[in-house]
């Protein structure tokens, strides 16, 4: 009878399971760092939102965003990360920040 491929990670050989476990521990640490860094970034942007609201500045600054995207794309390239992905991620984060700024401005 031919051997069937394992259905789940728990069916894999112990050495494969151990390697997977080791890599997943690193992934969990990196995900935790990402969450903490994002929390710090949002603490800063909340302060920016309050400053902008107090001084009646618009929530979005497209020129600043263009500079951030150009910089991040370069950083991504040197880090061998897909620049298009880095740009999408930054745009996703900034869209949420602008939503927060708008909420602060209305309050
Ligand atoms: O730098 C600002 O003016 C911000 O409001 C912060 C931020 C950002 O999240 O980086 C968000 C919105 C702006 O369009 C540009 C940048």
UniProtKB/TrEMBL annotation:
Biological process, per Gene Ontology: chorismate metabolic process; salicylic acid biosynthetic process
Keywords: Isomerase
PANTHER family in the record: CHORISMATE MUTASE
Source species, domain of life: Bacteria
A molecular function (GO) term: chorismate mutase activity
The UniProt record lists the keyword Isomerase: yes
Provenance organism: Streptomyces xinghaiensis
Matches recorded under Pfam families: CM_2 (PF01817)
Record's keyword annotation contains Ribosomal protein: no
EC number(s) from the headed UniProt entry: 5.4.99.5
Name of this protein: Chorismate mutase
Domain Chorismate mutase residues, every copy: 14-105
């Amino acid at each position: 009878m031919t051997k069937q491929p394992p259905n789940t990670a728990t069916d894999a050989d112990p050495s494969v399971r151990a390697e997977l476990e080791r890599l997943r521990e690193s992934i969990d640490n990196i995900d935790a760092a990402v969450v903490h860094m994002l929390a710090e970034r949002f603490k800063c942007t909340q302060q920016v939102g309050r400053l902008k609201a107090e001084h009646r500045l618009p929530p979005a600054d497209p020129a600043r965003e263009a500079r951030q995207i150009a910089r991040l794309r370069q950083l991504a390239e040197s880090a061998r990360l897909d620049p298009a992905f880095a740009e999408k991620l930054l745009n996703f984060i900034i869209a949420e920040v602008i939503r927060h700024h708008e909420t602060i401005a209305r309050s």
